[in-house]
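Hello Y.,

Per our agreement to keep a running log of every chain we model this quarter, I'm adding this entry. I've kept the format consistent with earlier entries: sequence first, then predicted structure.
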Amino acid sequence: MSGSGTAGKAESKAKALTAVQAALAAEHAAVYGYGVVGGKIGEDRRSEARAAYDAHRARRDELARTVRDLRGKPKPAAAAYALPFPVTDAESAVRLAAELEDRVAGVYSDLVRAAEGDRRRSAAEALRDAAVRAVRWRGESVPFPGLAERSAQSTASAAPPS
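Predicted structure for the entry above:
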C-alpha cells in the first residue's frame, strides 16, 4: 500500500506542477498584455495599470520559484502574445485589462483545485486579486470569478431551446 501512496503523491505533485506552469504562462501573458495596456491607457488609470503590471510581475517571479521548488524548469515567456482584439485607445486598453484578469483568474482557479496547503492558499489569493482587478477594470462583477467561461457554458446549455 505504501507504493500507491507514493504514486499518489507523485501524481499530485505532477498535477500541481502542470497547474503552476499554466499559471506561470498566464502571468507571462498578463505582463506582456499590461505592457500594451500601459501604452494606450488614459492618464487617469495609468497608476492602476502600473500597479497591476507590478503585481503580475511579482506573481510571475513567485511562480517561477515554485516551479523550481517542484523540481521543474520554468517555461520562459514568449517573445509576443496574440491579443484577443486590437487595442487602439484607452477604452480598448481597459477592456484588455479586464480580459487579462479574467484569463488569469481562470488559470488560478485550476491551480486552487490542483494545489494543497500554502500553494492552494496562495493560488486562492491570486484568484481573488485578479477577480478584484477585473471588477475595477470592468466596473461590474461576474458570478464566479475564474469560472466565468464555465458558468456561461452551463447557462447556455441549460437554456430551453427557442
